[in-house]
Design goal:
By secondary structure, the chain is α+β, with helices and mostly antiparallel strands. 26% of the residues lie in helices and 28% in strands. The protein has a domain at 18-164: 3-Layer(aba) Sandwich (Glutaredoxin), CATH 3.40.30.10. The chain contains six helices and 16 strands. Strand 15 (235-239) and strand 16 form a beta hairpin. Helix 2 crosses helix 3. The longest helix has 19 residues, at 54-72. The two termini are 35 Å apart. Bound molecules: benzoic acid. Residues 49-50, 53-56, 130, 138, 160-161 line the site of benzoic acid. The active site is at residue 56. Residues 239-250 have a biased composition (Basic and acidic residues).
Length: 250
Amino acid sequence: MQHRDTETDRCCRMLLGDVFPNFEADSTFGRMKLHDFLRDSWGVLFSHPGDFTPVCTTELGRAAQLSPEFSKRNVKLMALSVDSLQEHHDWSKDIMAYNNTEPGSQFPFPIIADDRRELVEKLGMLDPEEKDHNGMPLSARCVFVIGPDKKLKLSILYPATTGRNFDEILRVIDSLQLTAHNRVATPVDWRPGNSVMVPPRIPETEAAMLFPAGVYTKDLPSGKKYLRYTPQPNTHQQRTTDGELETSHL
Ligand code: BEZ
């Protein structure tokens, strides 16, 4: 994906597989450095156009509700906007009230302050169509999923006017984590527990060994045998340092 900074026409690229910049920033959880904050967790960094705005309030409310689901998956959430730390603290109380959370409880994940717009510009998180009171582009609704190796695993970019679906973000994390450990791919609208697909690069003989639960191949008019399904593996496969595939049962 290529991001364009409309003010300077300077491009910055964040491609799948790139190591995510180890930026340092102030957040509602204190000063943080991305890689230290993540340690061996997965991370979701998501930007939003501004504090005290309606769509953002519903989004952060939903992300806060789902935060135990992200934790279960070893994923740390981080929100970001171009407002100040004090505004983030004040707004997070509104979000908790919107969620009908008990007054005084802490907002469950950090909100990063980027009032000098350094990160949104560096990471290409701007929506050129939506401007603030000073005519500056607002932050778009970016979602970056970062793996435990600190590499970018997925990015989705929404305009400021379209709220995200955090159930979908959980769903893609389930797919990313499954496919990180197993040589499978997930089909359209896949949900955990559904059958998965055998990727084209795996020859038939190897597929039979890799997927002892069976491989079903759908007959197609072309006669090509590329639509291959197998039950979702309940094993955890990992590459050793020699590149060998090691399997342990969950
Ligand atoms: C909102 O969060 O409600 C919003 C922010 C910027 C543009 C449109 C909507």
